[in-house]
Amino acid sequence: MNFLQFAIWGAYLTCMGRYLGPMGLGGKIGLFYSIQGIVSLFMPALLGIIADRWIQAQKMLGISHAIAGIAMTAAGIYGLNAGTAVQFGPLFTLYTLSVAFYMPTLALSNSVAYNALEKGGYDTVKAFPSIRVFGTIGFIVSMWAVDLLGFQHSAKQFIVSGSIGLVLACYAFTMPSCPTNKAHSQSLADALGLRAFSLFKQKRMAVFFIFSMLLGVSLQITNGFANPFIHSFGAEAQYAHTFGVQHANILISLSQISETLCILLIPFFLKRYGIKKVMLIAMFAWMLRFGLFGLGNPGEGIWLLALSCVVYGVAFDFFNISGSLFVDKETDTTMRSSAQGLFFLMTNGIGATLGTFGAQWVVNQFCQWQGRHLVGNWQAVWFIFAAYALIIALVFAVVFKYKHQAEE
Questions:
Q1: Which pLDDT tens digit goes with each residue over 227-243?
Q2: How is residue 41 annotated by DSSP?
Q3: Could you tell me if residue 184 is inside a domain?
Q4: What range does the domain containing 284 cover?
Q5: Contact 77, 83 (CB under 8 A)
Q6: What is the CATH number of the domain that holds 101?
Q7: Is 178 a domain residue?
Q8: Separation of alpha carbons 146 and 158, rounded Å
Q9: Structural domains of the chain, count
């Protein structure tokens, strides 16, 4: 399940900008990525509520992937048929429908996995990270497939994504049944699953969710612009034929390879150091992720780009996976799906939306499309993002109060 869940995303997430730019939609890249955040403002919470109350989570997962897969495949078919005459309206509409039902599955798949592990008598903090690794492997496999098949500049990447989604739609229905809570003595808030928002009454959880949102700003920045950034060096003769320029997706996949390894570190770090220190590590890692991009190039500086990709594993996992596990442990079983939906609303919803729009604005100030290349002062762009991550880390260290009892 995890392998297919993220293979869907990996097929287009890091290279979509390479297709949109040459099609005359370069100025819309931020909008395509931000719509993932916009739908995450309400869709994960809504479907999480439904999964908590009425439809078992594994069935909701299957239904969502079926709709998302059909829409994404249709977007790819439209893009291929339209060629260079592709219009923003039809492509964006189909794409939006797909991500509207895909984004909730990120939280739903966590709920389905945690349920299966608990039924099997496993400790989710110890067992889930090694299972989640397969999601990252799936992401890498689809990234490499799209790169090696030459689909980075083609709408075929959407067809690959949609096809994988339809396979998972069928498989989801074979997952262990998840419980629903159909108690009759519920308030309206309970019936709608809105009790997850009561977590904001707890100061520690409120601060956690707010900083999850602020850190979520970083999530889609490199997904949207790392590939166009590396490919932009192709406009310079000395870099045009380097491996990084020719195979940007494979170079970027080092990030996911690092992510695969870093996932295995989460149980140790969470139990030994607690969520606050783990989150701080993630924030400083985001600063390094952006800063190293600003210093590197596909030539003699390719080691800096590679190091940035290695750091990404810590930046992403120590935030996303650890945060999800923290929410699971801090919430009641009757609203875990809703709480996971709320976590994704704050991170992939509000945070990622603000981050993507902000990143597009910053990029537009310093760079412009010249044919297939988005050229400009990329160093300034990456250093601005790095400064933001540093500021968030320093404030979080002061504001978030959390005492952790280390476990041996």
A1: 999 999 999 999 999 99
A2: T
A3: no
A4: 2-173+194-399
A5: no
A6: 1.20.1250.20
A7: no
A8: 10
A9: 1
